[in-house]
Specification:
It is built from eight helices and seven strands; from the N terminus they run βαβαβαβαβαβαβαα. It is of the alpha/beta class. A seven-stranded parallel sheet has the order 3-2-4-1-5-6-7, sandwiched between helices.
């Protein structure tokens, strides 16, 4: 089982959007491979650690039974994730609140991959680098994810160039698109599977899967 944690010091960088979209895509891919019926399929779970509960609100609106929403006491996150592994889940995606509080650090510590969304701009990149430093101190793999920028904007181009020059792991960028938003309990992947937003999300998931393929997970 792989655990992906979305973490960032700043709020408003798209953690919940990315958690929902990536978890739905991972579940769709998993069901396609296994040929399982969605109601009985334990492939992908999400955990909402953000007190705002935006992910929980969204998933309660979903007509589809996947991914599974797991309610979990943040203070027992490590044991809870271990139980999900025993139950047969293949992937867990964790949404976190802004900042570097104890629960966020715990979610980063149990992750096989920490995804750090970063919006274009020097202040946003500096905040992302602070999160990156904590991830490195925990010795967890990570990748920066440029997110929510105007297509072909100079700001996004500069941010990507800065990350590249620093030699940091980076996922393909996600641009601000109207059709990308979470709506009615669904993602762009379900509403408009051939849209540009869906194409970008698939590219990110493919890059994540490639990284996870090279990460050893204890049996």
């Amino acid at each position: 089982m792989h655990v992906i944690t979305l973490a960032a010091r700043k709020g408003g960088v798209g953690k919940t959007f990315l958690t929902a979209s990536l978890a739905v895509l991972a579940a769709m891919q998993s069901m396609s491979l296994d040929g399982a019926d969605p109601p009985d399929h334990p492939g992908v779970a999400v955990i909402d650690l953000d007190p705002q509960g935006s992910l929980t609100t969204w998933i309660n609106q979903r007509p589809a039974p996947f991914p599974a929403m797991i309610q979990m006491n943040p203070s027992r996150l490590m044991d809870g994730v271990s139980e999900l592994k025993v139950q047969g889940f293949q992937m867990v995606v964790i949404d976190t609140p802004p900042g570097h509080g104890d629960f966020v650090v715990a979610a980063m510590a149990v992750a096989d991959l920490v995804v750090i969304p970063v919006k274009p701009g020097d202040l946003d990149l500096e905040a992302a680098l602070n999160t990156l430093a904590i991830t490195e101190s925990l010795q967890r793999p990570y990748a920066l994810l440029p997110n929510d920028a105007t297509f072909r904007s100079r700001a996004m181009g500069l941010t990507i160039r800065q990350i590249t020059e620093m030699g940091l792991p980076m996922l393909p960028p996600i641009h601000h698109r109207v059709d990308a938003a979470l709506s009615g309990g669904r993602t762009a992947l379900e509403r408009a599977p051939t849209s540009r937003a869906s194409v970008e999300l698939r590219a990110v998931m493919a890059a994540i899967n490639a990284m996870l393929h090279n990460i050893e997970v204890p049996l």
